[in-house]
Each structure stands twice: as C-alpha cells, then as structure tokens.
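hey can u run this one w/ S-adenosyl-L-homocysteine bound, need the structure tokens asap thx
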Amino acid sequence: MSLNNIRIVLIGTTHPGNIGSAARAMLTMGLTDLYLVNPAKFPNAQATTMASGADSILANATVVSHLQEAIADCHVVIGTSARSQRTIQWPQMDARECGEFIAEQDYHNKTAIIFGRESSGLSNEELELCQRLVSIPVNPDFSSLNLASAVQVIGYECSVAINHQQGDASHDNVKRQLVTTQEMELFYQHFESTLIELRYLDPEKPRLIMRKIRSIFGRIEPESTELNLLRGILSAAQGRKFLPRNQRNDKKTIN
Ligand code: SAH
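ok here u go:
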C-alpha cells in the first residue's frame, strides 16, 4: 500500500477552519486525496488560512453531495468514530491497528477513511457503508477530539505503518485484490432483489436482514472472482424461482 491510495473523506464539516486544518494535517503525513461531502462552507478564506500552506490539498479537493460518490472506486472503506458502536457489528480497530491494516493492503486497493460531523459524527446509514471502524483511544474523562486532530492521528499511524512496511522486504508476498464499493453495492442490490423474489425478505418489513448481510460480506471482503461466483449463484436462484427446469435457459439475470 502507498499513501497515494488513501483517501480522506470529511462528511458535513460545519467549520471551514477544520477543513483547512485537516488539509494541513494530511499534507504533513504525505496524504493528498481529500473528498468533502456536503461541506457547509467551501471554498472559504478560513479554510485557506488554517491550511497554512497546504493549499494544494484544498485546490484539488473533490466536493460531492453523497458519501457513495466519494467511495464508489474504493476497495476498503473505514469509518472513524469517537465512541465504540454497539448497534453495528463491524470489526473495530484502534488507530495503530488501522495503520497496520491499511499498510497490509495490496497496492491496487484504494482505501477511504471517513470522518464525521463536528456535532454528531457519522450517521448509522453512513456507518453501514463502512467495512470497519476505527477509534482513537482517548481519555475517557475528556474524550472530545477535534476533527482535524483525528485526521492527524490516523494519518500519522498510516504513514508510520506504511513506511515501516516499505523498509521490510518480507511483506512482498501476494496480497488480496478486493472489489470496489460500487461493485459491492451492485452485489447487495442483487442479493436483496433475490431475497425479495424468493420471498425471504418482505420489502415492507425488511427488518435488519440486509444490514446483517452487509456485515457478513464486509467481514469477508471478497475478491472479484468470489463475487462473480456469488452473483452467479444469485442469478441461478432467481432463474429457479420463476421458470420450471425444462424452460430455463442458461442466460444469467444480472441486475
Ligand atoms: N459528537 C461527535 C463527535 C464528532 S467529532 C460524536 O459523538 O460522534 C468529529 C469527527 O472526528 C468524528 O466523526 C470522527 O470522524 C473524528 N473523531 C473524533 N474523535 C475521534 C476518536 N476518538 N476516534 C476516531 N475518530 C474521532
């Protein structure tokens, strides 16, 4: 993995100064890819002031209106959270483990690290788009960490872990090439429509089925040949549902 393959995504940042400070934190750690999802004010003079010269990060930042646009081409998506999440069963890491996890990725795998709003962090819907969560361990009696400070700490851990790894030739073994978020989203849509057709899932009362399915496949992090196999099985299940065996042709239904 290289630092160029890490994207920092800031969601709904209210204070433009925090965007500037985050850009400064990024550049000190060698990170350059910044996405902003619905920033309250951007571009903004306060952001430029707080960037203290890291203007190139701000000038090249990509502004989008939905998190999905920011992560569509990413293979690994990691959410940051000040609190440990009890409702969502994603694998959780601390900042150091996160750096090591990212450093271990194949260099093809683009990784997004998502940071939430100053007031309310990330929503459950946004956390659901993440495969893993990272928390920076803090003083339990004063746990409020500024957004840009969080970017600095996570960026530092990534930078240290990647630099260590690059100096260690024993890591040159084969690594797994993962699929992008967009491919995973198509797979989840296919999975859901199959469950609906099989009447396993009632779209009026979906319960938490798809959240659990996401949790399972998020943990597995399939490769693209594995995903093709699973989609083939889904298509076969869809075909079986609607046609008697002797009327079925072999064409696969792809969503
Ligand atoms: N009141 C919010 C705090 C948001 S702080 C809440 O309780 O969630 C703004 C953002 O900074 C968070 O969404 C997260 O991205 C990051 N952040 C703050 N503290 C963090 C911590 N201890 N570990 C990881 N990220 C943290």
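The beta strands are 6-11, 33-37, 62-64, 76-80, 92-94, 111-115, 132-135. anyway lmk if its weird
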